[in-house]
Design goal:
The chain is an alpha/beta fold. The chain is 35% helix and 22% strand. It contains 15 helices and 22 strands. The strands form 6 sheets. The protein has an 8-stranded mixed beta sheet, with helices on both faces. The structure holds ligand PMT. Ligand PMT binds next to helix 11, helix 13 and strand 17. The site of ligand PMT has 29 residues, from helix 11, helix 13 and strand 17.
Length: 419
């Protein structure tokens, strides 16, 4: 993902990481990885001293973006100056914040790109100090830190411990990467909640993944859903400010950040969890729910060879969760969106399904093996509404999710006042 991609501008939160010149700079490489794993866009400014510890090349490989180093690089000033670098970020992180950097920040000095960006900042700044304990405890540093804290700069660490220099110990170790990540997430989410996002104040309910219907204690009926599409929808709704409840069948995916997840196995459990999660403003049912379950699952493992012929499995119909939710009088979500997984006449079948199930919208996709939708990363969908069918170009599942939740947010904004 490029920092300046469309997705980055609309949905992704952006961290401008200023790496200072200290031995702890190496931790920033891992920090970048962890932030990118969380779908945050990371752009990096390296001070001159930082380049003694990490190279622009290694940082650039991790951010998938150019690295900024020089205030007086005329190209940079013309293309993307320090003001724009500052403005395009949602949060500025200074790590390691050396004694020298803190001193310059505290005194409003802007004699390199890093300090110029910080002085121009109109966004929160988080500093992660790292230095020798004597430098940290020096009254000059403590004065600078107190002044910066008074100016609204956030601090994490330093921690106590062994220093890189032999025999030196005390306060001065930079906070560890997980501590930095959680401080960054906290600052970003408080910033998010301060601003009004398209789904702020809304509750979005999402189902995702397959259901497993037991045959006996060790075997089950399942389908090929990976949960990628449904989980991406939950993540996209959370990024737009919604409170999101995700009811997830058995999948091998991590729970999306900032989403409340209930893990279930069977269709009946999914229905119960969905009912419990109501009321919701929007329900997006992307799960591939098994249409049938075994009528009477065996209490013990069915033994091979116990009978002359293989056992026959009697099936019974599962409840239709989409139909049930769409038909409710009490607590019917204002917008009920179902999916349709078809292998032929996709738009026609999905249009009929919208009516039959009482959904407001249906997102139809072709799940023929050749389309590679089950388990794949891309999808081509048709959005079926009361007004007809609209075919979207092939996109990643994340992009489908972002476009869908944005459409749902716009629809609700037009038809309802949010709470
Ligand atoms: O998980 P991935 O690998 O990313 O793949 C994504 C997907 C193909 C699973 C997804 O895009 C998708 O199409 N999900 C719906 C799958 C499905 O069950 O489609 P359907 O046409 O059988 O069902 C129509 C709708 O009714 C769906 O919203 C489904 O959740 C719902 N349903 C179906 C049966 C049932 N008993 N209860 C239901 O609520």
């Amino acid at each position: 993902m490029r920092f300046n991609s469309y997705a980055a501008k609309v949905l992704v939160k952006r961290v401008l990481l200023i790496i200072g010149g200290g031995i702890a700079a190496y931790k920033c490489l891992d920090l970048i990885r962890r932030l990118r794993e969380r779908d945050l866009a990371v752009r990096v400014v390296l001070t001159k001293a930082a380049q003694e510890f990490v190279t622009p090349l290694s940082v650039s490989a991790l951010t998938n973006d150019r690295v900024f180093t020089d205030l007086f690089d005329l190209d940079d000033e013309r293309e993307i100056g320090h003001i724009r670098l500052s403005r395009e970020a949602d949060l500025i992180v200074v790590a390691p914040a050396t004694a020298d950097l803190l001193a310059r920040m505290a005194n409003g000095i802007a004699n390199d790109l890093a300090t110029a960006v910080i002085l121009a900042a109109d966004k929160p700044v988080l500093a992660a100090p790292a230095m020798n304990p004597r430098m940290w405890l020096n009254p000059a540093t403590q004065r600078n830190v107190a002044r910066l804290a008074g100016d609204g700069i956030h601090f994490i660490g330093p921690n106590e411990g062994e220093m890189a220099e032999r025999g030196e110990a005390g306060p001065g170790r930079m906070a560890e990467v997980p501590e930095l990540v959680s401080a960054i997430e906290k600052l970003l989410s408080s910033k998010l909640s301060a601003g009004r996002l398209p789904l702020s104040g809304r509750h979005v309910l999402v189902t995702s993944g397959p259901t497993h219907e037991p045959i006996d204690p060790v075997r089950y009926i399942a389908n090929r859903s990976s949960g990628k599409q449904g989980h991406a929808i939950a993540a996209a709704a959370a990024k737009l400010g919604a409170r999101v409840t995700l009811i997830a069948g058995p999948v091998a995916l991590a729970d999306p950040v900032g989403v409340t997840v209930h893990h279930i196995e069977t269709a009946e459990e999914m229905l119960e969890a969905v009912k419990e999660a109501l009321p919701a403003d929007i329900a997006i049912l992307a799960a591939a729910v098994a249409d049938w379950r075994i009528d009477a699952p065996a209490a013990g493992k069915i033994k091979k060879g116990a009978k002359a012929s293989p056992p026959s499995l009697a099936l019974t119909e599962n409840p239709d969760i989409l139909k049930t939710i769409a038909a409710r009088n009490a607590h019917r979500p204002a917008l009920v969106i179902g999916f349709a997984a078809e292998t032929e006449s996709v738009v026609e079948q999905a249009t009929a399904k919208r009516r039959a199930k009482g959904a407001d919208w249906i997102v139809a996709n072709d799940v023929s093996p050749a389309a590679g939708v089950f388990g794949g990363d891309r999808n081509t969908v048709h959005l079926i509404t009361g007004g007809g069918a609209e075919t979207w170009p092939q996109m990643t599942k994340a992009e489908v999710a972002e476009r869908l939740v944005m459409r749902a947010a716009e629809h609700l904004a037009k038809t309802q006042i949010s709470v």
